[in-house]
Fold this protein.
Amino acid sequence: METVYLDRHATAPIREAFAEPFLPSHQQLSLLQNPAITPSSKRSSRPDGFEERIRRFEVTAQEKFREAIEDLPEVRLADWFTRLLENRIIPAFTQIGFDAHFARALFKMAAPGWQQMGPITNDCVWFHPALIRDIKEIRNGVISKSRRKSEDLFRPEEMWSQNLHRSVDKRITQKGLFPLFETIPTSWIILPRAYPLLEKHHARYLPGYLDFLDRETNQEFRNVLVRIIIEFAGNYTLKYLGRIFPKERATAALFNAYEALFWKNLRNPPTGFEDDLIFCHFFRWAIMFRNRCAAINHDMVKTIKRMEEEMQRVLPLMDSCPPAGRDYDDYGRLPVTLRHGCPGISAAVSYMEISGALTGSATGGRLPYAAIPAALTGLFQIIRKKYPAETPATQKSIRLFLRKLKESYSSANTHRMSTSGESSRQLRFVVPRVLGLIDQMSASLN
């Protein structure tokens, strides 16, 4: 059998309550009005309307979570599990988009089950070699598929866009399935993330997933591991809730936690995982929760619908960009879109660019040609204001977005003389104006 060796650091004291204390409600409301006072926030400016709405959804879900766990019984954990949780599990979970208090609550709500993974002896955790074999087989399949993709003629952002469009296809979400990796061996589906097949001793597999995640260098397989971990954690906790907890309240707390994590990762993905669309995994779990959980209520169903709507506003499906707003000001969501790496760049360019045929009258985002300069002026004002506080990865995405957008309009400028009609006459004015705006914006960021 193989071992996963744990790094030993000073043990952080685990709290007796389920979660770290939330700020009082009046302080939470003040964060919406002045996000600069949020300790974890990197943005000092007042958010635009779209981001403010996403932030409000997140805070509301956090408050519902706090209400659901209020006055629940205290849980005492074994010393070895406390050390594992604080030194290994929670740091790994926060890396992939969890908040520490939500991660801690997951493992406390189903502590008797999760503690089946131990106890730890000789500073290591043992897990079954069959799991290692299955994961390695899956990894080989993913990498093989990835190599075949690299031989295609698609640009990287186009490939990511295709994966995104498959991942949020409405026909798939209605079935509660997200086959992001259709050619992966089916053995990965029966690994113990799948709710019906979960057994209590499968808790022992979690350290194996985390160990592979630590060492993984292939981006696509890393995303598979993140998906497994997120769904496995939620499904296992849901199935093996401790008997001391009221089922309905604990289930509601779990749903609210995953909802809050969806909004958190939609608004601001974790560092290093910008391309991974981690919010999709939390949404996928919510869809499966809806399909399987008898305790789901009307409010939860409405919440899932809202999650899907906002997700598609940030990264719309192919050929289904939402219509531009009444004043064509829907560009306010694009700074959030650009935080999502290559998929975000592709979506933002598609929203603003002119169709290749130059025969239409609007951009991919259904923005009329005549409204493009004003829309870009407004978008660039928002980006310029937010840019200094964005992460280096997002700043890089913004610069790449400007470059790709300029390439698109430069190509339109090259071909516009060969077209005729009202659209062509509009473009003869719009294209040079847009190119000038992009150049000014790019210069202001240097």
Notes: Residues 1-47, 150-190, 318-328 have pLDDT under 50 and may be disordered.
